Amino acid sequence: MELQLFGINHKTTKLSERELFIINESNQEEFKNFMELSFGDQVESFVALSTCNRTEVYLLANKSIASSVMHKTAEFLGCSDFIAQDSYILDNNKALEHMCCVASGLDSQVLGEQEIFGQFKKAIQSFANIKTLHGRLQQITDEVISIAKAARTETNIGVNPLSISGLSLKIVKEIFEDPEQQQVTVVGAGQMALGVIEHFYDNGIRNIQAVNRTKKTLDISDSIRFETFNLSQLASIIQSTDILIASISTPLPIIGKGLIEDAFRNRQNKPMLLIDLGVPRNIEDQVRDLENAYLFSIEDMEQVTQENLEERTEEAKKAINLIKNKKVVIVGYGSQGHAHAANLRDSGVKEIAVALRSDSNSIDKAKSATSKVEVALEDPPYTSSENVTDTVELSTAIAVEVITGSSFTSLTLTVSALAKVFAPSLA
Question: What is the reported pTM?
């Protein structure tokens, strides 16, 4: 079994096609049944991630099966036409690097964005709950989360980040001189919608009402708590809405041209800003044809992000040094250990150690090739554990431990992910 992934994203595929290739809570049980029926024990574990920027499927499966799974998945979703030319497939080390970049926000349309970290964790939990994510793949995803967290805490990539919520606010402020005086309606009660409400509220925009399928109390924070309106009330609510932001999970648009036309007749054609954060889209694109309707989709936000790209990229470069200043120890020094020591040294890691049993025959060889050798006083119990053994099986990755003094911690890392995780975003 090997780590593999396939997917499409904002770099490869336009929004009108991306919104057809979606795997989320609405269809994940059906997707689980499809995978089990189609591939059985050829796929040991899997998880799917769908965001506004991408849909990707991560697999621990038989070697080189990702292409077959991808095409079958496209058939399952009814969107085979564009998948072959737009998709990407990665395995082993490249797959691991890519997952780290995604979770860190370095592969997003908004470089360093905040939301993706939470979305990645939510996907992991969701597929773990339906028992398709377990074992080795769950260990790998846990480590990806740890690396992504380090990227945000140990570099400035997470300082003053542009987020989808932040971009939405930026657009609002560029259009309205007094956004605090405008009526804002947010459709949806998911993570993205709640993030928008909280961000707007923290920036002084308090005239906000929320609309969702069910009327419920939104408890966003200690200071933000209010009732939502039912979706059936939307037609009357938008008549007094100046800024409409939609982020609700739906296979088809719920806000059509006719609905907005009716609203305009009752509001004397007063202009309305509409921001569609849904993938698939929540608002019909034909709304753009209406006079005084100004519609922004996820795709439209790309040009807004370019202003911030250079600054964020400079911060991303700093993250490359995350591993280079750490002390890394290789557990064992056989043919694999020797090769991984060379790989680490070539990646710029300055301090490499090798952990060996006290009676190992490789001590002298390791001493001549590394800066230091740590010799365990007793055989460490984890050297034969599933965690270490399985991680080593990734073709060019290695299980390593960060050493504190003479004791070994329980943190398992992967070499390439730590040494080169941020490089792809800087190409």
Answer: 0.62
